[in-house]
Design goal:
alpha/beta; six-stranded parallel beta sheet
Length: 343
Amino acid sequence: MKLTGRDSAAYFARPDKAAAGALLFGQDAMRVSLRRTDVLQQLLGEAASEEMRLTRLTGAELRSDPAKLLDAVKASGFFPGPRAVLVEDATDGLSAVFENALAEWQDGDAQIIATAKSLTARSKLRKLFEGSKRAYAIGIYDDPPSRGEIEDTLRQAGLDLPDRAVMSDIDALARLLDPGEFRQVIEKLALLKVGSETPIEHTDIVAVAPVTVDAEIDEILSAVAGADAAQIGPLLARLKGQGVAPVTLCLAAQRHFRALFSASIHPGGPAQGMGSLRPPVFGPRRDQMIRQAQNWGTARLEDALALLLECDLTLRSGGYVPQMAVVERALIRLAMLPRANRR
């Protein structure tokens, strides 16, 4: 049977323990691997490997010895409980092997869980599982997780659902990160919050989210956008001592001010504009950037971007220029812009 949409989500939430098995296929090996792990855990429980209730085979092993699959399906376990045979890297060339195993499968046999790379609609293996009345075929695609899937992930980690604003941060992270990284973030969040009497807050998301911009670069950009010119020299000296390149600073400033400009021109206003940014901005830093976008206004942000473009072209001109001095001058000029009269 072919499962898509809500049906596939329902299967992953509660796999059919009476089925002969399932084929999980997709281009992203990490997504397929995570789904395979979820299915096996739901079917067999935590101790399946230790109790030898899970047999692992590869496509290469079955090509050299096709009988291994049916032997594993029919084998008696040493421990009571459900059993499964996992076949990784299944291909169309093994369709006859799976067809025989599904035909011979009976209640009480081990379930057959097969994983494969992306399979076209013409794939023999895919057609076999889609046409079976006792097995499932589920394509796993690169779409971001739905809100329901994110909520299920939080519940599985033992976390209570946060309020709408914090949930928006988590949703943005799920869309930004690959599935494995997102799972790691939720695991860190669970370590931080499970058993806590306080709900999940913006600061908790900031604490567990992957760092995308160096904290000290953020600090100098906050000083620039906050019109605190006096802080630029000391912060720049510290960054120079850490080996941060002038071009890196210029590019970081361009990203920051482009984000402010995008937020400022959003039809729903800077707050909604900041919420739509990718990568997302979290917690207090998001509130700070919303205020910056409001204080600067679209016209002066356009001036800021023009100034930074001029700085970038100077750094890349090929001639000798004191690059850190050029960046410092540009950042100080930026910090002075908000004092100018509105156009």
